[in-house]
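Subject: two folds for Thursday's group meeting

Dear M.,

Sorry for the delay on this. The cluster queue was jammed most of the week, so I only got both jobs back this morning. I'm pasting them in the order they finished. Each block is the input sequence followed by the predicted C-alpha cells. Could you check whether the formatting survives your parser before we put anything on slides? The first protein is the one we discussed after the seminar.
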Amino acid sequence: MGHRYQLISRRGGAYNYATFRKRGAHHMKRLLLLPLVFVLVSCAGRPPVPAPPPGAAGPVTPFAGKWREIKNEDKPVTWDKTWIFEGNTITIKDGGRTYTGTFTYKEDREPKEIDILFEEHPANRAIYAIDGNVMHIKLLDSRVERATKLGMEPGYTFIMCEKVKEEPAR
C-alpha cells in the first residue's frame, strides 16, 4: 500500500505520501504553473501598433515643412516664393500664384532624385541635395534627361531654398 503513494524524486529516492505533502507539494505547484505561464506569455505577443488618427499626414519626408527660395540660377530671389512639402504634396507659392502637385523621391540614388508633377504640366525629373537647412534642387528646363550632377548648367534650372523656422504655437 505504501508504494501506491510513493513518488520518485530526481535523485532516485522515493517520497512517501507524508513527505510529498511536506516537500513535494510546492514543487508540483511550480510544475503546474510553468505551462500556464508559457501559454500566457506566448499569447501576449507584441502590443498592436496604434492606427494613425484620421486625416494624419503620411510619413515625414526629408523635405517636410516650408522652404523659402533664396536663389534661382545664382540670382537672389527678391520676392516671396515658398515651397511647402506635406506628405507627398508640394505647394509652390510664387507671389500671387499657387501651384499644387505631388512628388516622389529616391534617397538611395546618387545624386538623390525627386519627381514633381503639377496638373497640366509634364512630370519634372530633378535631382536634389539637402544639407541641414539648405536644399539645392536642379530641375529640367529645356532638357529631356534628368541631371546627373548639381550646379548650374544650360537646359536646367538650379534653385537654392532655405528651411523656414516654424513659429511655436501660442
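Second protein, same layout:
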Amino acid sequence: MFAARGHFEVTRAIGEAMKNTAQSYVERDKCPLYTAIQVMEGRWKPMILHRLNQGALGLGELRRSMAGVTTKVLRQQLRQLESDDLVVRGTTAEPGIRVRYQVTPHGRTLGPVLECLWTWGVIHLSHKQSLREGLDSRFSSG
C-alpha cells in the first residue's frame, strides 16, 4: 500500500521544500508591494504618520493624542519608522532639551498613498455596513 522511502529521498524532499521556501522569501523581499505593506505594518504607524504630518511632536504629546497606545509600543514603532527614514528624531533648543519627532521628506511621499487607503477604507466600511444591514433584514423578515 505505502512504498517505503529511503532516507536520502526524504532528506532530498525536505531540502527541496526548504529551497522553495527560501526562494519565496527572496522573491517576497524584492516585491515593492510587500515592502510597502511591511513598512506600514503596525497598529499605530498610520496614526503616528497622520499626527506627525500635522507638525513635529514630542513623545508625550504624541502618546496623549493617541488613546490606547503605550509608551513602549509608541517608542518601538517610532524607531521602526526612523529606521525606514519616514520619521526623524531631533532636539529643540527650548528651555530644557526636548525631543521632537517629525516626518522626513521621504515620509511625506506616503501622503498620497495614505489618502488612497483612507478613501478605500471609507468605502469598505460602508460596504461592510451594507452587508450587515442586508443580513439583519434577511433574518428579521424570516
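Two things I noticed about the second structure. DSSP finds seven helices and two strands in the chain. The helical segments are 7-29, 32-40, 45-53, 59-64, 71-83, 105-108, 111-141.

Cheers,
T.
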